[in-house]
Amino acid sequence: MNKKIRSDLTDKLFRAILSMETIDECYLLFEDLCTVNEIQAIAQRMEVAAMLDAKCTYVEIAEKTGASTATISRVNRCLHYGTDGYKLAIERVKAQQEQKNTETGER
Question: Could you list the pLDDT tens digit for every one of the 107 residues in the chain?
Fold first, then answer.
């Protein structure tokens, strides 16, 4: 855990995020917290991480997401040497999607 960002204020922020119960509630909170560009940049990084996890090439990722090679490289570095936050999120989203597909009979 990065001691540089850990604080009571940051804990409160993360508790507020965790208190959101739906995607629509997340939109409401994040639209108040962040600029549109910040939300889009965060969303882009998550997509880059998912594509790197799926073994896509930098060229494929750049073409699909519009991310720069610097952004792709930074996310890749986090995937390999970071705190595993991206990996945790990717795996949980995959598990949720698999559960949803099982419930609806989709593949």
Answer: 678 889 999 999 999 999 999 999 999 999 999 999 999 999 999 999 999 999 999 999 999 999 999 999 999 999 999 999 999 999 999 999 999 898 888 76
Q: Is residue 96 part of a domain?
A: yes
Q: What is the DSSP string of the chain?
A: --TTT-SHHHHHHHHHHHT--SHHHHHHHHHHHS-HHHHHHHHHHHHHHHHHHTT--HHHHHHHH---HHHHHHHHHHHHHS-SHHHHHHHHHHHHHHHHHHHHT--
Comparing CA positions, the residue from 81, 80, 61 lying closest to residue 71 is 61
The range of the structural domain enclosing residue 73 comes to 44-104
One-letter amino acid identity for 57? Answer: T
| Total Cβ atoms within 10 A of residue 63 | 11
Cα gap 80→75, rounded to integer Å: 9
